[in-house]
Design brief:
This protein has 358 residues and is mainly alpha-helical. The chain is built from 13 helices and nine strands. The protein has helices at residues 3-18, 24-35, 48-66, 70-90, 101-113, 118-135, 158-175, 178-194, 225-240, 252-265, 287-299, 309-317, 345-357, and strands spanning 155-157, 204-210, 215-222, 319-320, 323-324, 327-328, 331-333, 336-337, 341-342. A hairpin with a 2-residue loop joins strand 4 (319-320) and strand 5 (323-324).
Length: 358
């Protein structure tokens, strides 16, 4: 583990400890954004930005353990325990969105790394709570989990598909819950059927079934970077559970993972990384999309580390004192991507997750 990687980990720890702290200036900005109809930070410590940060730290912990970085491991564990304590004491242990599933993946990673103790018990309890929430989540006519169901009863986002299928696959692998794996399979197969572009083999941001399912409308731009990242992350986790399953391999989803991995690899920028929109090879680098896509490619062995070496270097080069820069800001809706880049927890976590698997 290099000194630069350690700086990225330490920055991630610091960000997790302060992620729910909002300055007066930021509150004012959020009020303006809300008045303009733009999204603002949620009062949910398990929401996906924190989840991405925790996933990165959980993967970094595994690497630190392998390299006997005991102090680093202890600091990561302390940060997780502190975040759990905050969630329990100030937020009444609420699971409020399907986006919380990503945090669940991080806790499942920790559960598998630990042999006993309070943290392992907490991880199991949180994962069970998230699984129960997803079982009751709103779905469309094909039993696909709907994203932001309070806004629309039919929108399916790659975000939600990737997050939920990744968690459900990991939960099934950890606890032998076949139902969880079946739900993950259905989510992915439905997106394969409705959310993909046939010519490029790349995903749209999402889709919606209209007129009681008679019409399917693809929505959002073709292969927004983080949408591709969500999808390949979800697929990669499902494929990991398929490798030793005779009835599953080579399944439709295993083949799809291989095909999507090859398609995404073609759009890696010559200098490394991925643009905010995958096909925009000459567009602005997005470290959050880069980290997510590279993580998904490595997590299921879609490619080898050498195939994405240039992108891993790009992630390291786009850091400042351990802080990962050049991440695209939040997305408000289908096709609403503000071209603002900077340091965000989702960029920090995604980069750390990818670097930890290399």
């Amino acid at each position: 583990m290099t000194e630069k990687e350690k700086l990225i980990i330490n920055e991630g720890i610091s960000e997790l400890k302060t992620i729910m702290e909002v300055s007066v200036g930021q509150r004012a900005k959020d009020l303006v954004k809300s008045a303009l109809g733009r999204s603002v930070r949620t009062k949910d410590p398990m929401f996906w930005p924190a989840g991405m940060l925790m996933l990165g730290l959980a993967e970094a912990r595994k690497k630190a353990m392998a390299e006997n970085e005991e102090d680093l491991v202890a600091r990561i564990d302390d940060a997780f325990l502190g975040h759990i304590r905050l969630w329990k004491e100030k937020y009444d242990k609420n699971i409020s969105y399907i986006d919380d599933a990503l945090a669940g993946v991080a806790f499942l990673r920790l559960y598998e790394e630990l042999s006993d103790g309070r943290l392992r018990s907490e991880c199991k309890s949180i994962a069970d709570r998230i699984y129960k929430y997803l079982l009751g989540a709103a779905r469309d006519g094909e039993e696909t989990i709907v994203y932001n169901a309070d806004r629309s009863a039919c929108n399916v986002f790659a975000d939600g598909i990737g997050q939920t299928s990744m968690f459900l696959s990991a939960y099934a692998a950890a606890f032998g819950v076949e139902e969880a794996r079946n739900i993950a399979r259905l989510q992915l197969k439905n997106f394969l059927k409705h959310g993909m572009d046939e010519r490029s083999g790349l995903p749209y941001h999402g889709y919606a079934l209209l007129d009681d399912g008679a019409i399917c409308e693809k929505r959002g731009i073709l292969s927004w970077g983080r949408a591709a990242g969500w999808l390949i992350m979800g697929l990669s986790e499902y494929v990991k559970g398929s490798e030793s399953r005779k009835g599953d391999s080579p399944s439709t989803l295993v083949r799809w993972y291989s095909e999507l991995s090859k398609a995404l690899l073609k759009y890696q920028k010559p200098e490394g990384g991925y643009g905010w929109q995958v096909q925009a090879v000459e567009g602005h680098l997005d470290t959050s999309a880069t980290g997510m896509i590279v993580y998904g490619l490595l997590n299921g062995d879609g490619v080898g580390a050498g195939d994405v070496e240039v992108s891993l270097k790009a992630l390291l080069q786009n850091t400042d004192g351990g802080k990962v820069m050049s991440a695209l800001s939040s997305c408000d809706d289908f096709g609403v991507h503000y071209q603002t880049y900077g340091a965000y927890p989702w960029g920090q976590g995604a980069a750390l997750a990818a670097l930890s698997l290399a």
